Amino acid sequence: MSTTLSSSEAGAAPMTPRAAATLIVLCGAIFLEGIDVAMLNIALPAIRADLNLTTTTLSGVVSAYVLGYAGFMLLGGRAADIFGKRRVFLSALAVFIAFSGLGGLATEGWMLLLARFVTGAASAFMTPAGLALVATNFPEGPQRNRAVTIYASTASAGFSLGLVLGGLLAAIDWRWVFFAPVILALLIFVAAIRLIADRQSRATRERFDIPGAVTLTAAMLLAVHGVTRLEHPDQNLAWTLGIFGVSAALWLAFFLIERLSAAPLVRFGIFRSGSLVRSNLGALLFAGSFFGFQFIATLYLQELLGWTPMQTSIAMLVIGIDAVVAPILTPRLVDRFGNDRVIFAGFVLAAISYALLLRMELDWTYAAIFPSMLLLGLAFSIAYSPLTIAATDGIHEHEQGLAGGLVNTAFQFGAALGLSGASAIGAYVLGEATSAEARLVSLQTALIVPVAAAVAGALITAMGIRRCRDLACDRVMPS
């Protein structure tokens, strides 16, 4: 009790100027990751027109980043714990700068694929290291909660701003979508060298679990690929089932490798934290529901309502209100009601937001769509950062990188599953039909994925509220 009280009192102290500057630098890095993803998505048509890319190669430019990001996230978190959070953060940022620049200089499709894959892998090392640095540079309690809230909301603000910047930069030259992040990253790198401190004095002599990382990456990729193939379940069904079977075998192999490894990628004892388990499941479902929704909404606005990409981007900007609301409102809600109750409210708002779009019609105006966008922005405001807080709260300092890697992997894997699931259901319902009415029905049916994911997230969080009446159940016991 006395330890918790002292931590709370320490956390209530205002940030020092150096601590505030450190937080700005770390937020700059996660902001960089957010705008990088969003800007590229908007610039894809201009890239294809200039480099004459096939549709397969163009989609690969996007998926290559996700592959590198999700596949190396846990390894990145582990690297931060072993080699030092500051060292890994700066090294990954340097790689990000180099390969983002390569993307801007690309003259062939393979150069873009390589650049995006390595940039995604660099982000996979940089993001958990950055989150761990936030956790270790601010004392647990209100001050850390406030810092993590600002950090998490900055990521979504970067994504929102990137939607607009991508359109503007692509209108000038799509290569600036790659060069602009390089300039920002260079400024962050210089400031980080001077400001960021790491409590870990020296690297530990431990090994990487490469077999575990490769097995986990392959298991996730095959799972997502299997879901994508479900859009045509009657074609090569045996092959699709085989893909799911191999994925399941790889998940089992990963579990066995981790149990037998002398230096596991994931110490399964960390899952004794009920808060960490719920936050990871919540992150998977929250990201899955949002990315499925974004995919559906984009198709609806552009293909059925005839909006331009820029109009679509501006319409979705209201979701970015979390960048303003979250730092002000969310810390107060968390302090008063706790993470689980705030996350539950966020899931409920998200479910209502998605459900409202089930009534969408071919003649809707933005006034009919706005309530869904606003509610989703509020859902992000009160759920996203508490999910991140809960993932690291109570975790031992030497495993903060692992905790950050787990929750970010859950976000990425959930995003891929949600997008693939919504796409598969929509394509299956549409079949060979081409009419606007048939496409509308397919999108409405696909909305079942984000609605169901949000409801499932609310139910899981509700069970956590019943089981955990105080912070003691969220603590990780020593192994």
Automatic annotation (TrEMBL):
<feature type="transmembrane region" description="Helical">
    <location>
        <begin position="342"/>
        <end position="358"/>
    </location>
</feature>
<dbReference type="InterPro" id="IPR020846">
    <property type="entry name" value="MFS_dom"/>
</dbReference>
<keyword id="KW-1133">Transmembrane helix</keyword>
<feature type="domain" description="Major facilitator superfamily (MFS) profile">
    <location>
        <begin position="22"/>
        <end position="469"/>
    </location>
</feature>
<feature type="transmembrane region" description="Helical">
    <location>
        <begin position="405"/>
        <end position="431"/>
    </location>
</feature>
<dbReference type="InterPro" id="IPR011701">
    <property type="entry name" value="MFS"/>
</dbReference>
<feature type="transmembrane region" description="Helical">
    <location>
        <begin position="364"/>
        <end position="384"/>
    </location>
</feature>
<keyword id="KW-0813">Transport</keyword>
<feature type="transmembrane region" description="Helical">
    <location>
        <begin position="113"/>
        <end position="136"/>
    </location>
</feature>
<dbReference type="Pfam" id="PF07690">
    <property type="entry name" value="MFS_1"/>
</dbReference>
<keyword id="KW-0472">Membrane</keyword>
<keyword id="KW-0812">Transmembrane</keyword>
<protein>
    <submittedName>
        <fullName>MFS transporter</fullName>
    </submittedName>
</protein>
<feature type="transmembrane region" description="Helical">
    <location>
        <begin position="176"/>
        <end position="196"/>
    </location>
</feature>
<feature type="transmembrane region" description="Helical">
    <location>
        <begin position="88"/>
        <end position="107"/>
    </location>
</feature>
<feature type="transmembrane region" description="Helical">
    <location>
        <begin position="443"/>
        <end position="465"/>
    </location>
</feature>
<keyword id="KW-1003">Cell membrane</keyword>
<dbReference type="GO" id="GO:0005886">
    <property type="term" value="C:plasma membrane"/>
</dbReference>
<feature type="transmembrane region" description="Helical">
    <location>
        <begin position="56"/>
        <end position="76"/>
    </location>
</feature>
<feature type="transmembrane region" description="Helical">
    <location>
        <begin position="313"/>
        <end position="330"/>
    </location>
</feature>
<feature type="transmembrane region" description="Helical">
    <location>
        <begin position="148"/>
        <end position="170"/>
    </location>
</feature>
<feature type="transmembrane region" description="Helical">
    <location>
        <begin position="281"/>
        <end position="301"/>
    </location>
</feature>
<dbReference type="GO" id="GO:0022857">
    <property type="term" value="F:transmembrane transporter activity"/>
</dbReference>
<feature type="transmembrane region" description="Helical">
    <location>
        <begin position="239"/>
        <end position="260"/>
    </location>
</feature>
<dbReference type="InterPro" id="IPR036259">
    <property type="entry name" value="MFS_trans_sf"/>
</dbReference>
<feature type="transmembrane region" description="Helical">
    <location>
        <begin position="21"/>
        <end position="44"/>
    </location>
</feature>
<feature type="transmembrane region" description="Helical">
    <location>
        <begin position="208"/>
        <end position="227"/>
    </location>
</feature>
